[in-house]
Amino acid sequence: MLVVVLVAFTAIGARLVQLQGFDAARYRALARAQRTTGVTVPAERGALFDRSGASLALSVPVASVYADPRRIDDPAGVAARLAPMVGVDPDRLRGELARRDRAFVWVARKVDAATRRRVAAAGLPGVGFVEERKRHYPAGALAAPVLGFVGTDDQGLAGLEAAYDEVLSGRPGRRVDEVDPRGRVIPDGSRVVEQARRGTDLVLTLDRALQYEVERILAEQVAAAGALSGMAVVRDVRTGDVLAMATVTGTRPPVQGSRDPGALPNAPLVTVFEPGSTAKVIPIAAAMEQGLVGPEDTFVVPDAIRVADGVYRDHEPHPTEVLSVRQILGRSSNVGTILVARRLGADGLDAALRRFGLGRPTGLAFPGEAAGIVPARRDYTGTSMGSLPVGYGIAVTAMQMVDVYATIANGGRFVPPRLVEAEIGPDGRRRSRPRAPARRVLSERTAATLTEMLTTVVEEGTGRLAAVPGYRIAGKTGTARKVPYATSQRYMASFAGFAPASRPRYAAIVVLEVPEDRRYYGGEAAAPAFARILAAVLAAGRVAPDLPPGSGVAPVP
Amino acid sequence: MNVAVPASLRAPATPGRPGLRLVAGTPVVRRWGARSAALTAALTLLASVALHALIAQDQLRLDRLRATAAREQRSYELLRLQVAEEEAPATIVARAHELGLVPAAPRPVGVPTTGGIEAHPPGAEDPTPATRAGAWQRMKRHLAVAP
Questions:
Q1: CB contact under 8 A, A426 and B90
Q2: Out of A142, A218, A319, A374, which residue is the most buried by the measure of CB atoms under 10 Å away?
């Protein structure tokens, strides 16, 4: 008898040790799960502001509707009442509500306040709300390709929303409450709250009003030129701040961006094109920098030249002429530029293209940003020294091309572009983002000479329509055929430049894809939009005109 | 009063030991002690219940205040969105069209003779309108993200 008692007590003791000792944690967790309920507290996604603090993207609280099918006795009846309120298919909802094996099904995500009120007023059993946040873009589709968009769960999927997703997201929190057997929170029960950490806001370099104006002008020009699409960039030459970056399609009416998942790409950064004549400034700048040519040095320029097995022509036939380097640039002579590039040599040309930043991303770390294409020196063919100097055989982004002109405008110093000016942390403190280091590409003297030469393009050359009353504009037209050259009569028309030439502040580029046949030259299709954009930018920047008295008047928008 | 006790029942006589006697009053003290303990226990229990009720009451009040704060914050954020939408360029342009306004024609102004007069000196930061950004920076740290 004693043995039986001892064995029984030993067994009970052993079980006790197992329950209270070895399995204690598991049972504690089970007990806690039974009497507590946990809710994830979503972190508010950081906002996107323009440079003056105007909101471009905000997250606001909204409710999502859920149901607990176990507590719904009449799925068909509840579905019939609920579906029209939230705008979902009644049959699908009835099927979801009939799944008694589940405790949670979404009914509708992120509904508006009125819908929430209607659902709450209906008082349907087993139907509740979850607090969530929804991304809003108060300015609509403004700068949509730049800002990008987020998914249903607020994760960045494109544009800056994706590039800075980690910074913007913050850290979700959690609240655990003690509940009674019916799931109601006990007022003085235990409560553990882990605070969510609000996301960091980003202050962009974009100027909302300017962005709107640039998009509007570009859309009008795309429509007027009958182009497939257009892109434009405006940046501050001293700081590298990108003030506006626009992408427009040529539908009727033109679309100024969209926030659909299949939305427009941010063309100035992700689309590459052969720049054509806007790139002629590179070999000429490099040759001047090395002292191989001066602005008044002359060349005997026929209207065609053979390079290996290719023949390169000027865009209009002309007798053989003696042209200065200034005239070559002003008239955008292909043959003249090739002759200048010959003095520079293949190695010099390759080095110049790379020194200006072509063939590599700008450093903006924008999702999908293209590096462009610059052939390696070892891959040069016989015709490379005919194609490359006139902007063929390479591919650039609009941002890279405007950087070239901004470098000249900035006295030869390349200041990397930037899109994010500062961050505002969860504590409300603003911290400027560090600037990428600048580097010298050209001497100040060469840059000044080139600036003077580029004003000739607008005042006497191919870029007359880029003129802005009251201001000296420096810039260059570009007209490049799209591949395949043999069969295509389609062109990319562009104009890149800066103003005011006496003390440059802003650089810009306008590129139109396939303007209609009659007016496909950059000087006709792109230059007028460039002029309107620069006029708006100079007025917004309160930059005084730099032309001498009597030379013109400045429009006040 | 002396009573005669048989010698067999008499305790052996020990020199110096006092005789046994009854102590009066002990049951009264014990009774009072028990009552005090009961009273103390009752008071403690009552105080505990009262305290518990107060805590529960305050917790409910706190919950209500939190709900109010959350509601007000939600309202603030929705108003902030509304302001941002109202001041968006496209909204202003659309409203201007509704009101019958038309874009002003470019108005010529005299050109300064020296040129180079700029609102922002070279190298100076653009003056940032302090109102919007500053207000948000002040407000942000006070906005709770806890439920």
A1: no
A2: A218
Is A551 close to B111, i.e. CB distance below 8 A?
yes
pLDDT the model gives residue A394:
94
Q: Which of the two residues, A183 and A144, has the higher pLDDT score?
A: A144
Q: Which of the following CATH numbers is that of domain A208-540: 3.40.710.10, 3.10.20.30, 1.20.120.530, 3.40.190.10?
A: 3.40.710.10
Cβ neighbours around A131 below 10 Å, total: 14
Span A38-60+136-204: which CATH code?
Answer: 3.90.1310.10
Which of A277, A324, A333, A387 is labelled catalytic? A277
List CB contacts (< 8 A) between A57 and chain B: none
pLDDT tens readout for residues A437-466: 999 999 999 999 999 999 999 988 888 899
In whole angstroms, give the CA distance from residue A256 to residue A270. Answer: 17
pLDDT of residue A383: 93
Q: Do B116 and A503 touch (CB under 8 A)?
A: yes
Shortest Cα distance, chain B CAs vs residue A120, angstroms: 16
pLDDT band at B37 (very low <50, low <70, confident <90, very high): very high
> How many Å is the maximal CA-CA distance in chain B?
147
- C-alpha to C-alpha distance for A108 and A148, rounded to whole angstroms: 24
A524 burial via Cβ count (<10 Å: 0-12, 13-18, 19+): buried
